[in-house]
Amino acid sequence: MKKIYYIFFILIVIEACTRPQQRLLKDQINQISTNNIADKRLEYFNVEIKSINGKKELSGATVSEKAFRQLQTFAQKEKLDFNVMLLPSNKFKENPWAIVTLSVCNIRAQGQHSAELITQALMGTPVKVFQEKDGWYLIQTPDRYFGWTGSSGIALKKNAEMQKWKTLKKVLYKEQNGFAYAKANVQSTIEFDLVLADLLTVVSSEKKFYKIILPDGRQGFVKKQECSSLEIWRKKNINAKDVLTTAFKFKGIPYLWGGASAKMSDCSGFVKTAYFFHGLILQRDASQQTFYGKLADTKNGYRKLQPGDLVFFGRKASPEKKERITHVGMCIGNQEFIHESGRVHINSLEKNSDKYAPDYEKAFVRARRIIGHVDGKGIEWVVDNEFYKQILQKQAGSD
After folding, report:
1. Beta carbons of 272 and 260 less than 8 angstroms apart
2. Residues 95, 129: contact at Cβ < 8 Å?
3. What b/e string do you get for 122-153 counting C-beta neighbours within 10 Å, with b at 16 or more?
4. Closest CA relative to residue 9, chosen from 211, 55, 17, 154
5. I want to staple 329 with a disulfide (CB 3.0 to 4.6 A). Which of 132, 133, 245, 337 is the partner?
6. How far apart are the C-alpha atoms of 56 and 58, rounded to whole Å?
7. DSSP states of 243-283
8. How would residue 11 be classed by pLDDT, with cut points 50, 70 and 90?
9. Is 207 left (phi over 0), alpha (psi -120 to 50) or beta?
């Protein structure tokens, strides 16, 4: 019995001695990430140390070539087996494209259904594919966000297929939600559902219906009156009234962390979708959106805020703590803003209003003007986006 206790004690001592070394190695990996990856949401980096058959292995993947080279050097120095992949994998180097084939495609932090929902992509969205693992795909969306989606969410396309897809007519679904039918008749079988801002590909026209085809080959009929031409994007002219009309269609829609669609949404997904329908791509998260657009004047209150401005809330920077943006809403005028918090509703920054929300005024950090301040980076026209150029024709009259 004493021998067993002695062995157990030795194991505890060995583990205690090993832990500081493991923490040191982990800290070094984190430092490589920090030095090379400005934002892990926009540049994928997922690397860790594993024990394989008693040997330590540096394992994972990244899209950063600089980080990859530094990891190689680190592994050699620490005598670690090296099993890190520089993405994209060979399978997707020549043909990196796919197109979303669901009305709303869930994108998760890891390749499993139980993983955190981090964002969503709408039907017809072109995405880049970087890796496939156990039926899950690491993709990047047009706003450069990385995440994992299942095989049912996208249709892989070779470059030649993308070129052919580009020649087909496209329209936008403009209703909050709806359906595509098996025949040009609403009494026929429902083939699939649709939501606001789905990008549909038209193969023919039949009376009051478009016959559309999905990237995975499924087909259905959609009412023409429920669709909008892509002129709404191509004109590259956006106004607050139109954006707010779209935003008000979301009133009452419940909150969903990671949601970015008319089904359910989070705060940044809500404002992003409202602007997207009218041709602008915003960054995905409020903490990203707050860096783009013109800073609105709120030094002497909120009266100068204009409809369409974004208002950001959270914690202001202090000598002790960094700034932290946790919420965003859209101004509608008279110091009121519409936002997704529990549900999409309206609050006010005016103390005498019955919609006044003191907690939001206390947490107010800044406001940004989006309209008139497209910079091609954090605020980008859809038709100028590298991803959408893969599937949209240049000719304004083609849609």
Report:
1. yes
2. no
3. bbbbbbbbbbeeeebbbbbbbbbbbbbbbeeb
4. 17
5. 337
6. 7
7. HHHHHHTTTTPBB-TT-BSSSSB-HHHHHHHHHHHTTEEEP
8. very low
9. left
**C-alpha to C-alpha distances, 30 to 26, 34, 47, 55, nearest whole angstrom:** 6, 6, 9, 21
Helices (H), the chain: 2-36, 65-77, 159-166, 231-234, 240-248, 267-277, 286-289, 358-363
SS3 label, residue 374: coil
Beta bridge partners of 202: 169, 212
Average of per-residue pLDDT values in the chain = 93
CA nearest to 97, candidates 163, 195, 171: 163
Tokens representing 250? 């979301």
> Is the pLDDT assigned to residue 86 strictly greater than 80?
yes
Give the DSSP letter of residue 130.
E
Helix (H, G, I), strand (E, B) or coil at 232: helix
Spell out the residues 6+ positions from residue 195 whose beta carbon is closer than 8 angstroms to its own. Answer: 103, 104, 122, 123, 173, 176, 177, 178, 261, 262, 263
How many CA within 13 A on the CB side of residue 70?
Answer: 18
Question: Is the separation of the CB atoms in 75 and 49 below 8 Å?
Answer: no
| Single pTM value for the model | 0.92
First-residue to last-residue Cα distance in the chain? 82
Q: Which amino acid is at 60?
A: G
Which residues, 6 or more positions from 64, have their beta carbon under 8 angstroms from its beta carbon?
A: 36, 37, 43, 45
Task: Tell me the C-alpha distance between 46 and 37, whole Å.
Answer: 11
Torsion angle of the four alpha carbons 389, 390, 395, 399, in this order, in degrees rounded to the nearest 10? -110
